[in-house]
Design brief:
The protein has one domain. Helix content is 7%, strand content 40%. Strands 1-3-4-7 form a 4-stranded mixed sheet. Strands 2-6-5 form a 3-stranded antiparallel sheet, with no helix packed on it. The two termini are 15 Å apart. The radius of gyration is 13 Å and the shape is globular. The protein has 1 helix and 7 strands, in the order ββββαβββ.
Amino acid sequence: MKRVIIREPWWQDRSVSIADYHFKYSDTILVEISYRTKDGNKMFPGAYVLPKSKFLTLQKFMIKDDMAGRKLYLADLAELERVV
């Protein structure tokens, strides 16, 4: 399982951007959001599991395609499975 740390989510629709290359060597990724409030508490404690099968079925919007061929997609936090 690959671990991906997101600094800050997309606030307008409470989603995170995930690059498709994270699934190159793993069928599941563990998504953690490191954003903290001004009090120092994590706003999104815990982690979210995103299996490749779920990633492929999510409605995805390509938000970036750079010269290296990396593509970033938005995944809604409400659709991810939360683990403690």
